[in-house]
Amino acid sequence: MDEYRLTKGHYIICDPGYVIMKNKEGDHLIQKLIKQFYKNMNKFHRFKFQGVVIYVFRSEGGDGIFDGVGTDSGLIAIIETDQLKGDIRFKQDYSKGKIIAFEVNEPIIAQVEHFDLKLSNGIRIHTV
């Protein structure tokens, strides 16, 4: 089981393609993310790209909607949104798509086991 500590902030859970812009800078970022991810696609990863931290794992069921989170890439990301403000690689409106948004006031743990996400604040994403 892989796990990471999420600190205070506003987070979204979504397909990373839902928030990465379709511009030159966004295309470069998604290509780097995919290349790094597929070095070990069965792991829950923490990547940092030019100051932006993205946690990402794959769903067991591939594309679909899992407990309210949609993916058409088979990937699910956790991203703290304050770090995206003003970054041209990212959309600034996160209200579209099958996205879960939540606040973290005290640090929580994010775990992925058997392709399912469990947050210590009670959020669960089952990906079969």
Strand order in the largest sheet: 3-4-7-2-8
Number of helices: 1
Mean pLDDT: 96
Distance between the termini: 17 Å
Number of domains: 1
Count the beta strands: 11
- Series of secondary-structure elements, N-terminal to C-terminal: EEHEEEEEEEEE
Helix content: 10-25%
Percent strand equals 35-45%
Q: Structural class, please?
A: mainly beta
| Rg of Cα set | 13 Å
Please mark out the parts with pLDDT under 50 across 5 or more consecutive residues, or reply none. Answer: none
Described by the principal axes of the CA atoms, the overall outline is: globular
Characterize the largest beta sheet: strand count, sense, and whether it forms a barrel: 5 strands, antiparallel
Fill in the keyword field for this structure.
1 helix; mainly beta; 11% helix; four-stranded antiparallel beta sheet; 11 strands; 128 residues; five-stranded antiparallel beta sheet
Molecular structure report:
It is a single chain. The protein has one helix spanning 24-37; strands spanning 2-6, 9-14, 45-49, 52-58, 64-66, 69-71, 75-80, 100-104, 108-113, 116-119, 124-125. Strand 9 (108-113) and strand 10 form a beta hairpin. It is built from one helix and eleven strands; from the N terminus they run E-E-H-E-E-E-E-E-E-E-E-E. The chain has one domain (2-125). The protein starts with a strand and ends with a strand. The chain has a five-stranded antiparallel sheet, covered by helices on one side. Strands 1-9-10-11 form a four-stranded antiparallel sheet, with no helix packed on it. It has 128 residues and is mainly β.
